[in-house]
Every structure is written in structure tokens, then in C-alpha cells.
Amino acid sequence: xxxxxxxxxxxxxxxxxxxxxxxxxxxxxxxxxxxxxxxxxxxxxxxxxxxxxxxxxxxxxxxxxxxxxxxxxxxxxxxxxxxxxxxxxxxxxxxxxxxxxxxxxxxxxxxxxxxxxxxxxxxxxxxxxxxxxxxxxxxxxxxxxxxxxxxxxxxxxxxxxxxxxxxxxxxxxxxxxxxxxxxxxxxxxxxxxxxxxxxxxxxxxxxxxxxxxxxxxxxxxxxxxxxxxxxxxxxxxxxxxxxxxxxxxxxxxxxxxxxxxxxxxxxxxxxxxxxxxxxxxxxxxxxxxxxxxxxxxxxxxxxxxxxxxxxxxxxxxxxxxxxxxxxxxxxxxxxxxxxxxxxxx
Length: 345
Hints:
alpha/beta
């Protein structure tokens, strides 16, 4: 399939912060966008007022965007480009709905979901393969990188990566999204890009907790660097290119989420460090913290792979086992001394 400079019909599944900003970006490039929302209220608000009533509420949406809250066979026939922008934990039910009508090799599937499915430890690519078929998984493109939705929506210069096993599809996605203020690079390592996008949220919670406890920049730098080492270890064990973790989807996104109060995952950790309970935080957050669910999935994955992931383990104990944060930090600080660089297996 081919995409044009303008005029493609694009279906964006997910009307949260990132789905809304991507829909707006594509519409501003001249494409016609159908934005699917789970909520009829959100879809109605977009169509009637040109505003998403829950996410990015200050953004006036392009007239090229129309919103719906149901998925039909006709919709999939009319839209050959599908952008998956749901929360990672919601990806399976949404794709099962898509599978009722089916996709073809003509569909370009671009996944912007970041996370690891809690119940299965599957990355988004594996979910796509299992539900829509192995060919769809191989051809899917994964969009990731340091990109807060609010900044993309206000045209702040941003750089991301589009990764696929199919180089031509990665290039199609690149052409679709690339703009002077939204630069898109390509990659042939979807596994690394997916893992980096998921695992950085776990480290961001730890970084936020450290700041909430009163630790300063030395500590945050240590967490970012050692967290990156954990991410890379898990990635390499699953066949990812270690260099991916030095790029936009890796250290770029990790730095962003670990250093900005705009990050929901950083905020979860920060508020934990200030003494709030995880239930209170999640109930009041107003949007999804992918890192909360991903922490459990990442911890289980590291155990399965026999990978040393102490920051992930400590975060899991705080989030799910009510371990006092000070005690978790002391556990990290009193680990045995060792070489910085991982030794060859």
C-alpha cells in the first residue's frame, strides 16, 4: 500500500491524550481522521464542540477529525491505516473487536501503545500477532520516543522512532507522521523499541519516588543510568539490539519520563515518596499510569528470563507489597558492589 502526502483516511483507536494529539497532528497534515473513543460522551464532545471533554481539553480539534464510539466492518474497509493509541492493558479487547471484522495485508497498522500486558507478559506486537495474525504482527509499525502529548499538540519540536520488521512499512509510517516539528526516524528493531517504551515507565516511577523522598540530582542520575542497564539486559535477552536503548525510544524517552513532572508515572512515584497510598494516587490521577501495571509484568518477565532487575523489583515491592519506600531504597543501596558493565554470558 502507499500513503499520500495528504488525504489518507486514518482510523485512530483511542481518544486519550496521545490518541487525541496524534489525530490532531495527522489532521493538520491534511489527512482525514476518524477518532474512536470508548466513551460516547467523548465522541459527542469532539463532534459537537471540536474539543475532547476529558483529554487535552484546551485543544481545538481540526474539522478533519470525526469521532465515533463503535467499530464496524465498514469502518475498517474505509480506513486502510489504523493507529493503535489505547492503553496497553486495553489493547487486547480493542483488537478482538477489530478481529471480528478482520484486517488485510492492505492495512497499515501503527501501534503507539507502550506497555507489557499484565496477564500474559505480551508486548503489543505479540498481542497484534496473536489476535490479528502473525503476518499483521510482522508488518506492524511501532511508534515510540520522548513525546508528551501536550507538547506534540502545541507543536513543540519532537523526535520519535517508527520501528518494524518490514522496512517499507516503517518508511510509510515515517512519511505519514513526519513534519518539521515532529521528526520520525526508522528502526528495524520493534522488540527493542517496544520494550524500551514499556520499561522506561517503571524506572520513571522509581525516579519520582526518589525525588518525593527528597533525594536530588545525583540520585536521579544514578537511577536513570542503572535503570537503562536493566532495560537493556531484558531487551538483549529477548533479542533486541542493545543500541536501540541508546536511542530515542530508550534513553531519550527514559530521560523525559524520569525528569519531568508532566510524566504521569513520575507523578505516581513522587506522590508515593511524599507518603500517599497507591490507591489514592491511582484514584485521583485522571488518566492511565502505564507504569503501574507494567511494573508487575516487567518484574514477572525479568524473573522468567532470570535477569537481574533490582529497580524493577524494588518498585514492585513498593507498589504491590506495601513495602516502605525507605526500606526499598536501603535495599538498593546495600546491594553488593559489582562492575558497572554487564559481563558477557
